Amino acid sequence: xxxxxxxxxxxxxxxxxxxxxxxxxxxxxxxxxxxxxxxxxxxxxxxxxxxxxxxxxxxxxxxxxxxxxxxxxxxxxxxxxxxxxxxxxxxxxxxxxxxxxxxxxxxxxxxxxxxxxxxxxxxxxxxxxxxxxx
Amino acid sequence: xxxxxxxxxxxxxxxxxxxxxxxxxxxxxxxxxxxxxxxxxxxxxxxxxxxxxxxxxxxxxxxxxxxxxxxxxxxxxxxxxxxxxxxxxxxxxxxxxxxxxxxxxxxxxxxxxxxxxxxxxxxxxxx
Lengths: 134, 127
Description:
The complex is a heterodimer.
Chain A: E1 2-11, H1 14-30, H2 35-54, E2 59-68, E3 71-80, H3 88-91, H4 105-111, E4 115-121, E5 125-133
Antiparallel strand pairs in A: 1-2, 2-3, 3-5, 4-5
Chain B: E1 6-9, E2 12-16, H1 23-40, E3 44-48, H2 57-72, E4 76-80, H3 84-93, E5 101-103, H4 106-126
Parallel strand pairs in B: 2-3, 3-4, 4-5
Antiparallel strand pairs in B: 1-2
Helix pairs in contact in B: 1-2
């Protein structure tokens, strides 16, 4: 697997969520994802960026454009320094929310991508990584 | 401050969302629309999202809430113009927007709205 480009964007305000969405749109367009695949990745990024801001008290989105043989893909990492998720099983249940959301963010984002990983420590922040291949 | 315009067309309100909304703007639209329904005694609301390239759970919930609030205030809400890629993504995300009336474009939405309101009127007259 080789890394073609990478970068990061802060997630400190609601406006940053919009900017993160636009960044992911640009990257998926450059990778020539289909319109549906672009929309899925942008939507997943929007959910995870909001989670990092609302539940994780802010953080950053890191992106990497990857290549494995002839396949290209986009990997996004959403990292926050928030309180972490004490009960992962519960957090990965459709419709469950600790806040005012719909409880669709994590599970919904997982359904929209090819690869999904979550790592969270109580009082140590949460890191969610998603990848979508062309 | 940023604002999404609400157009009054007789007994209907028309909102065309043309920008990528941040969350506060979506909430402000919900407030503004609720006030406009009440102020104008509107019978229907058309929300045109044909320019939206993404609807996530926050915007989806905002639309569902507007529809629910509108109903209590006596207005039917119709969501029009959703792009196919957005619809596919929303369903996969887990939001199929149950109970939200939709139409392909503003013209069809308007026809549907009139039909719904006429049917309600006939219902009331029959009682």
